[in-house]
Specification:
Number of strands: 5
Number of helices: 3
Largest sheet: 5 strands, mixed
Radius of gyration: 22 Å
Number of domains: 2
Distance between the termini: 55 Å
Strand content: 15-25%
């Protein structure tokens, strides 16, 4: 009888722990990741930026965006081939919170607007959208 009680107690603890860990994993999968890109050049006064976009099939790992360098290359290639604007340095900003990302975007825009020499040029969402990078592995 003593072993039966111990078995049920261990089973109960195990089932409770696994139920909570499954809920934590489900919450992380439901979180969306948003991003926007900025491209600036030392040789030009034009600064390009994209709209905030929801990234498909992306999950942050330890707070970092996987394959983030490939997202910046997507923006760089768009500038090189579509807008004929080479030599731009591209950056991507990302977050699970869209409102936090909007604050970051407005802060960044205000810094460029303070300097009268820069002109901000938006890239239309119809013209450019981040795509999930294909795996090279």
């Amino acid at each position: 009888m003593k072993y039966v009680r111990i078995f049920f107690a261990v089973t109960l603890v195990f089932s409770l722990c696994s139920a909570f860990s499954l809920k934590a994993k489900e919450k992380n999968k439901d979180k969306a990741v948003y991003a926007f890109g900025v491209a600036a050049s030392f040789n030009d006064t034009v600064v390009y930026y994209t709209a905030i976009q929801k990234l498909d099939s992306v999950e942050l790992k330890k707070g970092l965006l996987p394959k983030r360098e490939q997202y910046t290359y997507q923006l760089k290639e768009y500038l090189n081939y579509e807008l004929k604007s080479p030599d731009y340095t591209c950056m991507i900003y990302f977050s699970e919170s869209k409102s936090q990302l909007e604050k970051e975007e407005s802060k960044l825009k205000s810094k460029y607007k303070q300097r009268k020499s820069f002109s901000l040029v938006p890239i239309a969402p119809e013209a450019f959208a981040f795509k999930y990078p294909k795996s090279n592995e």
